[in-house]
Design brief:
It contains 8 helices and 16 strands. The protein has 2 domains: about 250 residues, Glycosidases (TIM Barrel); about 90 residues, Immunoglobulin-like (Sandwich), CATH 2.60.40.1180. The radius of gyration is 23 Å and the shape is elongated. Helix 7 runs parallel beside helix 8. The protein is α/β, with parallel strands linked by helices. It is about 25% helix and about 20% strand. The strands form 5 sheets. It has a 6-stranded antiparallel beta sheet, covered by helices on one side. Strands 1-4-5-6 form a 4-stranded parallel beta sheet, covered by helices on one side. Strands 2-3 form a two-stranded antiparallel ribbon. Strand 4, helix 3 and strand 5 form a beta-alpha-beta unit.
C-alpha cells in the first residue's frame, strides 16, 4: 500500500502565512479577506492564495514547490491535486516540469471536474492522471461515447483517465437507489473500462445514504468521524478483490486504450473487448447496467478479428468463475443477473476437428 497526499492549495483563516505573508492573499478594501469560491459553492473555512500578487512571485511559487519537495523527501510519490483548474496554468507548467526533473516517478492526479478542454489542457501541462465524467455516465450510449472519446485522437495521446466511482463530495444518483448490485456494477465498469480507478471509503460497504435531492452523503466524513465494520453484511470486498486480482493478471485491463465495443442486442448490457497481450488472445467483458433485475441478450463474438467466417469457433475461458468452453458461430447468448452482473472471458480461435 502507498500513501497519496491531497495537495490542496489553500489556507485556513488561522494559517500563519496570513500574518507572515499577507501579500500572498487577496484582501478586500475593508481589510477582510476573500473566502474561497467555486460557484455556486462558497467555502468560508478556507482562503485562496493570489498567485499573481505583487509579492507572490517568486516567493509564493517557491514556497509551494518546497511543500511538494518536503513530502517527496518523506517518501510520498502520489499527489492528488485539489481543483488545479482554479490555479494558473503557468504555475502548473513550471511546478510539474521542475519536480519531474528531480523526481520523474512522481504522480500528479488532477481533481478537475470542469470543461473538457480545460481538463485536457491540464494533462498537456504534465498531470499524470485526471478525474473524469465517468461518475455521471450511466447509460450504455453515454459510456460508449465517452470511452470512444478518450480512445480517440487527440485525447488518447496525452489524457490518462482515472474512473472514480464516488468521492467525498459526490454520492452519485445511481448508487443512491441501486443497492448492492449497483455498487458491483459501477465497480466493474470503472475497473474494467479504465486503466486506473478509485473509490472513497465506505463504498466497500455500499454506503449510499444521501442528503435529500442532492448528490452528497448524509453522514459525510468531512464533518464527523466515522467508525466502520469492514466485515459488515452486504459488503462487496470479495468482488473488489476479484476484479483487482484480475486486473493485475491481465495487461489488457490495465488501460482504457484499445477498447472495442461489440454488439450485444440489449441496451442494458455493455459488451467490449481488448487484446490480451498474449498472442492472438483477446479479453471480452459484458456488464449489466440493470441493478434491479436480470438481463439477457444475443451477442456477437468478434470472429472477424481473426479473419474467421461467421461459422467459426472461439475457445473461451471464464476468468471469474473458471472453466472453459467453445462458442460455435458468431451469434451467442448471455444472461446476467444482479447477483452476477458481469462476466470476463479470455478467448482465442478454437481448434475444432
Amino acid at each position: 500500500m502507498e500513501i497519496a497526499l491531497d495537495f490542496a492549495i489553500q489556507c485556513s483563516p488561522d494559517h500563519p502565512w496570513l500574518k507572515e505573508h499577507p501579500g500572498w492573499f487577496d484582501w478586500r478594501p475593508d481589510g477582510t479577506i476573500k473566502y474561497a469560491e467555486n460557484p455556486p459553492k462558497r467555502y468560508e473555512d478556507i482562503v485562496n492564495l493570489d498567485f499573481y500578487a505583487e509579492k507572490a512571485i517568486p516567493d509564493l511559487w517557491l514556497a509551494l514547490r518546497s511543500v511538494v519537495l518536503f513530502w517527496i523527501e518523506q517518501g510520498i510519490r502520489i499527489f492528488r491535486v485539489d481543483n488545479p483548474h482554479t490555479k494558473p496554468f503557468a504555475f502548473w507548467q513550471w511546478l510539474l516540469s521542475d519536480i519531474r526533473k528531480l523526481h520523474p516517478d512522481a504522480v500528479f492526479l488532477s481533481e478537475a471536474f470542469t470543461r473538457p478542454k480545460t481538463m485536457y489542457h491540464l494533462a498537456k501541462l504534465g498531470f499524470s492522471q485526471s478525474y473524469t465524467y465517468f461518475t455521471w455516465r450511466n447509460s450504455k450510449r453515454e459510456l460508449i461515447d465517452y470511452i470512444n472519446e478518450l480512445n480517440s485522437a487527440p485525447a488518447a495521446w496525452f489524457f490518462r483517465p482515472n474512473f472514480f466511482v464516488n468521492t467525498p463530495d459526490i454520492n452519485p444518483w445511481f448508487l443512491q437507489s441501486s443497492g448492492r448490485a449497483g455498487f458491483v456494477i459501477r465497480t466493474a465498469l470503472a475497473a474494467l473500462l479504465s486503466g486506473s480507478w478509485g473509490m472513497y471509503s465506505g463504498y466497500e460497504l455500499c454506503e449510499s445514504d444521501a442528503l435529500p435531492e442532492r448528490e452528497e452523503y448524509r453522514d459525510s466524513e468531512k464533518y464527523e468521524l466515522r467508525f466502520r465494520n469492514w466485515d459488515a453484511p452486504g459488503n462487496i470486498s470479495q468482488e473488489i478483490t476479484a476484479i483487482n486480482r484480475l486486473r493485475r493478471s491481465e495487461p489488457a485491463l490495465q488501460t482504457h486504450l484499445g477498447t472495442s465495443f461489440y454488439n450485444a442486442f440489449n441496451d442494458n448490457i455493455i459488451y467490449f473487448g481488448r487484446h490480451s497481450g498474449r498472442g492472438s488472445d483477446r479479453i471480452l467483458v459484458a456488464i449489466s447496467l440493470n441493478p434491479h433485475g436480470s438481463e439477457q441478450a444475443d451477442f456477437e463474438i468478434p470472429l472477424w478479428e481473426w479473419g474467421m467466417p461467421d461459422t467459426g469457433a472461439l475457445l473461451a475461458h471464464d476468468l471469474l468463475r473458471g472453466g472453459s468452453f467453445v462458442w460455435h458461430g458468431k451469434m451467442q447468448h448471455m444472461w446476467l443477473n444482479p447477483g452476477a452482473p458481469f462476466s470476463v472471458w479470455r478467448v482465442r480461435p478454437a481448434e475444432v476437428s
